[in-house]
Amino acid sequence: MAKYGFFLGCIMPLRYPGIESSTREVMDALGVELVDMQGASCCPAPGVMRSFDQTYWMSVAARNLVIAQKMGVDVLTICNGCFDTLFEVAHKLNHDPEMRKKVNKILKEAGVDEYQGNVNVRHFVELLYKDVGVEAVRAKAKSGKGMKAAVHYGCHFLKPSNIKKIDDAERPHIFDDIVEAAGVTSVPFKDKGTCCGAGGGVRARTPDVALKMTKENLMNMQAAGAEVIVDCCPFCHLQYDAGQAQLKEFGIPVLHLSQLLGMAFGLDKAKLGLEVHQTKVNL
Q1: What residue ranges in the chain does DSSP mark as E strands?
Q2: CATH architecture of the domain with range 136-276
């Protein structure tokens, strides 16, 4: 059984613990072991921390990588922001000895072991597609209820594409393929690749602008006949879920991919945490 350090991030454990629970259940069902990264901190957030001080941003991320290094595992994330930070920092430190030396000096001052440059960071969706396989998902899925889904990739999953090299960033398909394997139809919709509205600190700094972007996305999804929104990032999840509650104009259920797969696999709904969603889920 493949083993990964499960990086929880901030939004999931604080707002949507059902995403954590469903991820653990789904990955166990698919033969992937998730182990806790004791002492892990915020990734830290790429859209905010990196803008102020790149070295600080990289050093905090490196501390998280050291935790996985000591455990002898690679990292698995279920959040696009966490994935972006941890992947980019690991990539830089794994390929740039001088930068690694600079960051290790800061880690030493903080009493943290040196980062050796040998940890890889994986995203939940990418791991499912490349390692577990679409057919394994299809074999486990009992019913997707024939739903029509608006699949939201988010900003940080595929880009920067020159180093992530996961999929065609402009015409991606791997997330859609997994959703379809679960028995759900992924419907095309206008401006599918746009931000949910929350990224880059917009939700915190100018919530009215964030909500305007979210509303436009929701209108496009609704026009396409989407019965559910499927995301792969708790922050996007928060924006669509809480955003609909604020707008009071829509009622499209929002599911993280792990929750959708949990439903398709016939897992106990009590472990999916759907009751904490602000937009009612009645699927």
Answers
A1: 2-7, 32-36, 74-77, 121-123, 148-152, 185-186, 228-231, 254-256
A2: 3-Layer(aba) Sandwich (3.40)
Q: What is the residue extent of each domain of the chain?
A: 2-123, 136-276
Model-level pTM greater than 0.85? yes
The amino acid sitting at 234 is: P
State which fold the 2-123 domain adopts. Glutathione S-transferase Yfyf (Class Pi); Chain A, domain 2 (1.20.1050)
DSSP E strand stretches across 131-200: 148-152, 185-186
Cα–Cα distance for residue pair 235/48, rounded to 1 Å: 14
CA distance 173 to 192: 12
> Is the separation of the CB atoms in 233 and 255 below 8 Å?
no
CB-CB neighbours of 266 under 10 Å = 12
Token pair for 177: 């393929």
Q: How far apart are CA 280 and CA 247, in angstroms?
A: 14
**pLDDT, tens only, 212-228:** 999 999 999 999 999 99
Q: What is the pLDDT of residues 27-57, one digit of tens each?
A: 999 999 999 999 999 999 887 788 789 999 9
Distance CA 237, CA 86 (A): 20
Q: In sequence order, which residues have a C-beta less than 8 Å from that of residue 143 and are 6 or more positions away?
A: 183, 264, 266
